[in-house]
Amino acid sequence: MTGEHSALALRGLAKRFDGTIAVAGVDLDVPTGSFYALLGPNGAGKTTTLSMAVGLLRPDAGSAWVLGHDVWRDPVTAKRLLGVMPDGVRLFDRLTGAELLAYHGLLRGMDPAVVDQRAAELLDVLALGDAGRTLVVDYSAGMKKKIGLACALLHGPRLLVLDEPFEAVDPVSAALIRDILTRYAAGGGTVVFSSHVMEVVERLCSHVAILAGGVIKRVGTIAEVRGERSLEQVFVEVVGGRTATGEELSWLSR
Amino acid sequence: MALPVSVTAAPAEPVRAVSARHFVRLKLRVMGNNFRGQGWRIALFIGGALVGFWFAASGFFLLAAPGLTDEGRYAVLVAAAGGGLLLLGWLLLPLVFFGVDETLDPARFALLPLPRRALATGLFAAALVGVPALATLIATSGLVLTAWALGGWSAGLVAAVGVVAGLLLCVAASRAVTSAFASMLRSRRVRDLAAVLLAVAAALLGPLQIFGLAALRETDWARLTGAATVLGWTPFGAPWTVGIDVAQGRVWAAPLKLLITVAALGALLAWWSRSMESAMVGAVSAGPAPARRGGASGAVAQLFPRLAGWTRRDRFGALVAREARYWWRDARRRANLITIAVVGVFVPVMVNFGGARFAVEGEQGFAASDSSPVLVAVSMLFVGVLASVTLANQFGFDGSAYAANVVAGVPGRVELRARMTAFSMYVLPLLAVVAVVLSVVLGRPGWIGLTAGSLVATYGAGLAVNSFVSVLGAYSLPETSNPFAMNSGAGVAKGLLTLLSMLTTAVAAVPMVVAAGLLGDAWLWLALPVGLAYGVGAALLGAYLAGDVLDRRQPELLATVTPRR
Q: Using CB atoms and an 8 Å cut-off, which of residues 464-523 of chain B contact chain A?
């Protein structure tokens, strides 16, 4: 079965915070080469799940494998294959974009010459070259996402895990990010990302899992999950959202 | 089709006024929730409260002393000076040491339709809730006792009014100044600069105080009492001295002084509520900085500052370079460096001269011969402890950005060694200056070995101790626009942790002092090599052992330094 490992495999991942269950046993298999979306409403446990999958948050139970390497038992190998862009996490933002990339590259044990070359290319492609000596702390939200993505891509990971890559990003930057991710996946890489932007997911992804209340509700290829309906309809139904009947909130229309 | 939402036709629903009580209850609730499920936080809070009350009790007896001993002559002096210092403390300490209690941040109320007046009184009332305010009230009630003892119940009553007004003045002054700063410092650059200036001012406070104490020895008391009387007519002394004025028969002064206090209070509150508005709007980004082109140099070359140019271009080097940049670019860290620089130079000089001077009651002036190797070693121990304790929360400075290192799987030992190295690149030259300056100023160049040796040994031991503290006792610093902010309420508690780390470091360095006392002249030559070996050895051992701990609890450390939102 060599080479047949899932890019990311989660088994029974669970986490509770101060008595509230954030994630209640998530199993997931992300096939190599897939473009995988983790969908879910706010507070569904997406960030918690992904944090546990990449070694940022220790799970109460369960385990995670990256291309067959246990993230919590053999973190060094697993983390080498992994590129991560966490959400709501600051970068070392008192560095300029170029400095930040150099830091990440060297931290990953890359050759300085390679770091230089890739950093220049990434800054160019992501249209961050103009920022010059601006510190990342002074970047706009979209620029921060882009430099975060560049940091995750720099060492050429086999698996890319992105938490909300399209949150608070303007359409131009979003298109650029989409482009780069598509190219990465076409080149044999695997992408896992969380989102609640349905049209991006429908356009990009091969697979999707819907997470709600800390449990996986639906999982499969996009066609399997969607069936005859739109992804949004399935999502709202699965998550159990309610649609306004017109009875309540009557004082809104006065 | 537009929704039939018409704004004008909406009948005014009854709006109940928001009173100060809501804010007080909100603050208590926030404080309470902070403790939920965190036993150690409660323990730390209780410890901090005990320390607060210990200070309050000693303040009480100091201020009550003239009454208890029936020494009316010193009553005005004690009241004006003591109360004035308290007010000064309320003004400056939050800016520099403890941070402003941001439990209720005005910015959080920006969207609520609250009249400014209601918001200001509410936040003011909430600010009155807390250990510092209570401790101040307890301490100053000593003045009531003094006034009562000297002038009966009417004087005591007036003193009580004065004390309450004084407390209000303290809190208002502290809030007004911090809020004004927060809004003045809206751009990041200005903020960074101001933090540094404040750090310098704060660091100079200590030396100035020692100068003041030395001056006190020589001034006659009559002149001081005169100064205190004048001080009593300023807002710094007015609220505290009213009771004593009544007790000593100057009844006419009481209403005037209370008027001064109330006027000052009103002015401060007006100032505060005005600056609060701009504070509520929040910080603005400085925008894209002048896009100086990085030249043709590559990314890696840009990362490494000249200071760290000697390191290899690998993982360790990158960590050192990033830390070195951060010690300069992060205002919080830079402020720490400056404090070390100023205090590190002044305090040893003061202690060694001051000790000599106090010992001979200022008869001989600067008498170098009075300092002893033990005294020098002790003062060096202090500087070493102070320098190394800066790293006690080194991961807290990073905040959630530390996730990058966790994802990259940086080995704990490399991480800690690199952090020590980067910090030492700034601190070791500074310590060398301290050692040289002290021995030159003392007129004993031969003691350089002693000073430098004790310093390096303590510093190295401190690095080791603080490696453990930073891994095991880290806490999150808030990511707010206010560089002086600490997380709600627990400031005192965190101070205790720092104190613990300082004590441990001091104990670890005691052998250097003992050796200075026992070995005599031989130690003057042995101190440097022994101290170097001891310090470097301790630091490396600390990084080795603490690195192991760090490897096992990287995710937990990340969780503790990530600010809760």
A: 479
Q: Which of A13, A42, A99, A118 to mutate to test the interface with B (most CBs of B within 10 A)?
A: A99
> Half-sphere exposure of B451 toward its Cβ, with a 13 Å CA cutoff?
29
Q: How far apart are the first and last CA of chain A?
A: 66
Planar angle of CA A64, A68, A71, nearest 5 degrees: 35
Per-residue b/e over A121-137, b at no fewer than 16 CB within 10 Å?
A: ebbebbebbebbbbbbb
Is pTM beyond 0.80 here?
Answer: no
CA B77 to chain centre: 28
Which residues in chain A have Cβ-Cβ distances shorter than 8 Å to B302?
96, 98-99, 102
> How many angstroms separate the CA of residue A211 from the nearest CA in chain B?
22
Q: Token pair of B129, please?
A: 């809730």
Residues B37, A107: C-beta atoms closer than 8 Å: no
Task: For residue A121, give every residue at least 6 positions away whose Cβ sits within 8 Å of its Cβ, in sequence order, or none.
Answer: none
A80 in helix, strand or coil? helix
CA proximity to B143, closest of B260, B263, B239, B264: B239
Q: Do the bridges between strand B485-486 and strand B100-101 make them parallel or antiparallel, or are there none, so unpaired?
A: parallel
ipTM value of the model? Answer: 0.91
Grade residue B489 by pLDDT with cuts at 50, 70 and 90.
Answer: very low
Q: How does pLDDT run across B127-165, given as a tens digit for each residue?
A: 888 888 889 999 999 988 888 888 888 888 999 999 999
